[in-house]
C-alpha cells in the first residue's frame, strides 16, 4: 500500500522536567504512551538527553567508523544470530551495520573500539557508553509507564533486571542509478523495545494496522520508540509490534538502534489474561526466537511469532 501522508505518529514530550513536575504529568504520560503503543506500536519521543552538539559528535564518529576498511569492520563478529557486522547483500545493497552487545557495559564498548582502532579511542568509548546508558534509562522509564498503566508494576523490577541492550550502528548509502532505494525491507523487531535515533536524513516508515505506510519525520532532540514482538507477547497482544522499513531518499542516512532484549523467559502476567483477552502466547525465549527466525528461513513465514510460541 501507498504511504498515508496525512497521518503522523504521536509526538510525546518525555523530558525530565515534564515527568518530574508532578503526579498529573506522569499519569498523563502513562496514558498517552500506552495508547500510542496499542494503536501505532511506536511514537516519537522528544527528550533532553542529547543537545545538538552531542548528536553531531555521535554521527561524526559513525562516519569515521564506517569509513574503516572492510577487513577491519568484519572483526565485529557474534555468536548470536543477526548480531555483528552485516555487509550489503542482494536486494539490500545500500545497508551496512555493526553492533555492540551489552552496550551499557563499558568493557563491551571498549572491546568493540579495540577491534576497530589500533590505538585506544577514548572519545568513542565515553560517547557511546554514555549514549547506551542514557537510552537504557529512557527504555526503563517507558516500560515502567506501560507496566503501571496495566496495573502490573510489581513485575517491572524483575523485567528491568532481565534486559540486556544491543546497540546497532547503521549506514545507508545513496543508491546508484540502477539500484533500488530499499534500505531495509518490511519487518517487525524480535526484541522488547527498540529506540532509534538518526541524522538529518529521513527514510524510516511504519505500517499502520490498516496496511498503509506513514513516513516518520524526526523533530529536533527526538527518537522513535518502537514496541517489538517480545513486548506484544508480554502484553498478550495489547501492544502492537509494527512492521517498518527504510527507503533512501537521495541522502546518506546514519541511524542508531538500541534493542532491549530479555535474558529470561517473557511470560504474560496472569492479570492480563481474562475472558476478553484469552492467552495468545506461550512463554517466550527472546534469543531462542532469534535462532528460530534464522533457521530454515522462518523469518519469511506468514506469522513467525505465532509459529514459534502461539497457543
Topology:
Elements lengths: L10 E3 L2 H4 L3 H17 L2 E5 L5 H15 L3 H4 L21 E6 L5 H11 L5 H28 L6 H7 E10 L9 E6 L5 E6 L5 E4 L5 E3 L6 E6 L1 H6 L9 E4 L5 E10 L23 H8 L10 H6 L2
Parallel strand pairs: 1-2
Antiparallel strand pairs: 2-9, 3-4, 4-11, 5-10, 6-9, 6-11, 7-8, 7-10
Helix pairs in contact: 2-6, 5-6
What would you say about this model in short?
This protein has helices spanning 16-19, 23-39, 52-66, 70-73, 106-116, 122-149, 156-162, 229-234, 286-293, 304-309; strands at residues 11-13, 42-46, 95-100, 163-172, 182-187, 193-198, 204-207, 213-215, 222-227, 244-247, 253-262. It has 311 residues and is of the alpha+beta class.
Number of strands: 11
Estimate the global geometry from the Cα principal axes.
globular
Helix/strand structural class:
alpha+beta
User: What kind of sheet is the major sheet?
Assistant: 7 strands, mixed
**Count of helical segments?**
10
Distance between the termini: 30 Å
β-sheet strand percentage: 15-25%
Spatial strand sequence of the major β-sheet: 1-2-9-6-11-4-3
- Low-confidence stretches are none
- Our Rg estimate from Cα atoms comes to 19 Å
Overall number of domains = 1
Average pLDDT rating: 92
**What's the architecture, going by CATH?**
Sandwich
Q: Which sequence of SSEs, written as H and E, runs from N to C?
A: EHHEHHEHHHEEEEEEHEEHH
Query: Which class in CATH terms?
Result: Mainly Beta
Let me know the CATH homologous superfamily: B-lactam Antibiotic, Isopenicillin N Synthase, Chain
**CATH fold assignment:** Jelly Rolls
- Amount of helix: 25-40%
Amino acid at each position: 500500500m501507498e504511504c498515508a501522508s496525512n497521518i503522523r505518529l504521536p509526538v510525546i514530550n518525555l523530558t525530565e522536567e515534564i515527568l518530574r513536575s508532578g503526579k498529573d504529568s506522569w499519569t498523563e504520560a502513562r496514558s498517552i504512551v500506552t495508547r500510542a503503543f496499542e494503536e501505532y506500536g511506536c511514537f516519537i519521543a522528544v527528550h533532553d538527553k542529547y543537545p545538538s552538539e552531542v548528536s553531531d559528535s555521535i554521527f561524526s564518529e559513525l562516519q569515521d567508523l564506517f569509513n574503516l576498511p572492510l577487513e577491519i569492520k568484519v572483526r565485529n563478529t557474534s555468536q548470536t544470530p543477526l548480531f555483528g557486522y552485516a555487509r550489503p547483500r542482494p536486494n539490500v545493497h545500500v545497508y551496512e551495520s555493526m553492533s555492540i552487545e551489552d552496550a551499557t557495559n563499558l568493557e563491551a564498548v571498549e572491546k568493540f573500539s579495540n577491534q576497530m582502532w589500533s590505538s585506544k579511542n577514548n572519545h568513542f568509548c565515553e560517547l557511546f557508553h554514555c549514549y547506551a546508558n542514557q537510552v537504557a534509562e529512557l527504555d526503563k522509564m517507558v516500560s515502567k509507564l506501560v507496566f503501571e498503566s496495566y496495573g502490573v508494576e510489581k513485575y517491572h523490577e524483575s523485567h528491568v533486571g532481565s534486559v540486556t541492550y544491543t546497540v546497532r550502528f547503521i549506514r545507508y548509502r545513496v543508491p546508484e542509478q540502477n539500484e533500488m532505494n530499499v534500505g531495509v525491507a518490511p519487518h517487525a523487531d524480535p526484541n522488547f523495545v527498540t529506540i532509534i535515533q538518526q541524522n538529518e536524513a529521513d527514510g524510516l516508515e511504519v505500517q499502520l494496522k490498516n496496511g498503509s505506510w506513514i513516513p516518520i519525520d524526526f523533530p529536533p532532540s527526538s527518537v522513535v520508540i518502537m514496541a517489538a514482538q517480545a513486548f506484544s507477547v508480554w502484553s498478550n497482544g495489547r501492544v502492537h509490534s509494527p512492521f517498518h522499513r527504510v527507503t533512501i531518499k537521495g541522502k546518506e542516512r546514519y541511524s542508531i538502534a538500541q534493542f532491549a532484549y530479555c535474558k529470561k523467559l517473557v511470560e504474560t502476567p496472569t492479570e492480563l489474561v481474562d475472558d476478553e483477552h484469552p492467552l495468545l502466547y506461550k512463554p517466550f525465549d527472546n534469543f531462542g526466537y532469534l535462532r528460530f527466525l534464522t533457521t530454515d528461513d522462518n523469518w519469511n513465514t506468514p506469522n513467525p511469532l505465532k509459529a514459534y510460541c502461539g497457543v
